[in-house]
Every structure is written in structure tokens, then in C-alpha cells.
């Protein structure tokens, strides 16, 4: 599933769904996720989502507003936060923790373009920045004593 959205007076969000046969996720090597014509790698992401005004009400299970978004965005990960020895290969091999967190992109800057409902926007590194992390493992995190039960989906 790819989810895109935007804020403002004409806010909205749209989803595009893929079967697993349309998805490629390398097990080893750098991030290079592909789903149909969408790509997401460490340094670039591209994609296209379109839901027509007829499709949105006809498919409420899609949870989508009508609209179209297309993008080609470069990613520059400038600052990383490494959690240290606890997430090393040794502890991952032992499956010592329920979940491992890695924030490779504590500060990212983006450049490229985005087209929303026919209107094109320039994505400029001096004004477009964000965050990216990875969570992997067998369960969601749970902090004993915080009064929060583990998430149930």
C-alpha cells in the first residue's frame, strides 16, 4: 500500500494497493523497494497515485479521496542517529530484543518535483526537510512501567 496526502483547504489523501506479486524488497543489500511503478531507495523515491472521482465513492474500502499525485524526489540523509552496540549484528542474530530501531535519517533534505492534481511543485532542499527511520523485529516496543500496553493491530 502507498498512502499519499496533503494539508490545506483542499486537503486529502489517497491510497494505492499492490499485491505481493507486484512488490520487490531485497533481503540483503541497500534499500531498494519497488511496488509496481513506485520506487523507494536510500537516495530517491518515485511514484504515482490516482483515484478518480468515480472510484472514491464506489470503493469506500480504499479509504481514499479522489485525486492524483506523482513525484520524483531525491533524498539526502545528512544526520543519522545510531543506537549503538545494542543493535549490532551480534544482538540481532541472538534476537535479543523484540524490536530494533535505526534512525538513518534524523535530518534529511529533499529535492525534485511533485505534481498534485495537475499542479506542479518544486521540492527544494533549502525548504524541504524531514525524518526517516526503520523498525524491524518480531514485535512492537513496550516500555515497562509506562502504563501503556503493547499495540494490538
Task: Explain the overall architecture.
By secondary structure, the protein is mainly β. The chain has a domain at 36-137. It contains two helices and ten strands, in the order ββββββαβαβββ. The strands form two sheets. Strands 3, 4, 5, 6, 7, 8, 9 and 10 form an eight-stranded antiparallel beta sheet that branches. Strands 1-2 form a two-stranded antiparallel ribbon. A hairpin with a 5-residue loop joins β1 (2-6) and β2 (12-16). It is globular and about 50 Å long. The two termini are 16 Å apart. 5% of the residues are buried.
How would you summarize what this structure contains?
This protein is mainly beta.
Question: What layout of secondary structure does this protein have?
Answer:
Layout: E1 2-6, E2 12-16, E3 23-24, E4 32-35, E5 38-41, E6 44-51, H1 55-58, E7 67-81, H2 89-94, E8 99-116, E9 119-123, E10 129-137
- Rg over CA atoms: 18 Å
Q: What composes the largest sheet?
A: 8 strands, antiparallel
Give, in order, the helices and strands.
Answer: EEEEEEHEHEEE
| N/C terminus separation | 16 Å
Instruction: Count every beta strand, where a strand is a DSSP E run of 2 or more residues.
Output: 10
Number of helices: 2
Q: Which regions are unreliable across 5 or more consecutive residues at pLDDT < 50?
A: 146-153
Q: What fraction of residues sit in β-strands?
A: over 45%
Global structural class: mainly beta
Amino acid at each position: 500500500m502507498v498512502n499519499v496526502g496533503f494539508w490545506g483547504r483542499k486537503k486529502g489523501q489517497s491510497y494505492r494497493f499492490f499485491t505481493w506479486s507486484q512488490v520487490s524488497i531485497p533481503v540483503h543489500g541497500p534499500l531498494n523497494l519497488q511496488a509496481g511503478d513506485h520506487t523507494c531507495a536510500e537516495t530517491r523515491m518515485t511514484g504515482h497515485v490516482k483515484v478518480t472521482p468515480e472510484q472514491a465513492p464506489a470503493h469506500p474500502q480504499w479509504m481514499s479521496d479522489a485525486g492524483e499525485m506523482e513525484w520524483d524526489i531525491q533524498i539526502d540523509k545528512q544526520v543519522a542517529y545510531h543506537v549503538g552496540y545494542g543493535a549490532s549484528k551480534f544482538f540481532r542474530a541472538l534476537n535479543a530484543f523484540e524490536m530494533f530501531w535505526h534512525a538513518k535519517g534524523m535530518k534529511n533534505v529533499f529535492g525534485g518535483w511533485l505534481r498534485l492534481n495537475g499542479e506542479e511543485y518544486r521540492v527544494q532542499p533549502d525548504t524541504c526537510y524531514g525524518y526517516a527511520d526503520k523498525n524491524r523485529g518480531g514485535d512492537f516496543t513496550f516500555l515497562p512501567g509506562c502504563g501503556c500496553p503493547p499495540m494490538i493491530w
